[in-house]
Amino acid sequence: VRAQIMEVITSPGVNYDMIGGVGDILLEVIESVELPLTDPDLFKKIGIEPPTGVLLYGAPGTGKTLIAKAIASQANATFIRMSGSDLVQKFVGEGARLVRDVFQMARDKSPSILFIDEIDAVGGMRTHDGTTGSAEVNRTMLQLLAEMDGFDPTGDVKIIAATNRIDLLDPALLRPGRFDRIIEVPLPDESGRSDILKIHTRHMSLGDDVDFDRLAKLTDGFSGADLKVVVKEAGMFVLRKRGEEVTMDDFLKAVDKMKSEEELSVVQGM
Ligand code: ATP
Q: How far apart are CA 77 and CA 74, in angstroms?
């Protein structure tokens, strides 16, 4: 069970230059999570307690997981991912024990970054209707709070939690002392989108006419993950016609395709 619930990567191999459009956010996470691991004396000298972890929130596909992996890579820390929704959906009755196991694993493999994805699945508002399902989720949540409260801030395990739905989180999780920083990872702005497109096309043979600024203008509302799909689709168009380089026209077609799929899913209420 342990192996299924966790993803453990010794060295995720993600660099900061693989993340676009997150500017100050990345600096904040580096300061709160990476520095305490790589330079704990800095905190000692100033006389401040290092943060135990941060909560990242924002739309899906904006790079929360990517940031956590990059921090682990840079700090030479083990990356351990636990999914909140797996915890409550796939392992009913075992949630609390698994939370304990994951925190133990993080200590055993330290220095480590414990990434708790979709924390809202466990840490959603606690219900008081006493149904078995929610009582089980409550137990899992209480175990999570207990683990976090017992955390040694000077130790070499740090927590990064992520959610798309901060509005659903139990206020207990947001209380000061649990997450030192609560940081929004928003959808990228125009220049961020241009940066992300450049990152994902780094290894592509590009036509001279490719205009990233124009593509960034046309992709308002797209996440980093959406832009990655656009790049891949554009590449597939070229592959299909056995072309040699990806031109502006291929990118434009890929953007249109994404937009019409988006509209379709809105119409179908998906
Ligand atoms: P979710 O909330 O759905 O788990 P997430 O915010 O954790 O999403 P990621 O899993 O980090 O998003 O993003 C998915 C993929 O999209 C990444 O592996 C990366 O390839 C691409 N991507 C997302 N955001 C960025 C970004 N800011 N810069 C570059 N690539 C990005």
A: 8
The Å distance, Cα 66 to ligand 1 centre, comes to 6
pTM of the entire structure? 0.91
- How far apart are alpha carbons 141 and 155 in whole angstroms? 22
Q: What is the dihedral of CA 20, 21, 27, 32, to 10 degrees?
A: -90
Atom 8 of ligand 1: nearest residue by CA position? 61
Of the CA atoms within 13 Å of residue 62, those in its CB half-sphere come to 23
Residue nearest to atom 22 of ligand 1 (CA): 224
Instruction: Please choose from 62, 197, 202 the residue to mutate so as to test ligand 1's pocket, defined by most ligand atoms within 8 A of CB.
Output: 62
Residue-level pLDDT, tens digit, the chain, 270 residues: 455 667 888 878 899 999 999 989 999 999 999 999 999 999 999 999 888 899 999 999 999 999 999 999 999 999 999 998 888 877 778 888 999 999 999 999 999 999 999 998 887 765 555 444 577 788 888 888 888 888 888 889 999 999 999 988 888 888 877 888 999 999 999 999 999 999 999 999 999 999 999 999 999 999 999 999 999 999 999 999 999 999 999 999 999 999 998 777 766 665
Residue with CA closest to ligand 1 atom 21: 225
- The complex scores an ipTM of 0.96
For residue 116, the one-letter residue type is I
Q: Give CA–CA dist 81/115, Å, rounded.
A: 5
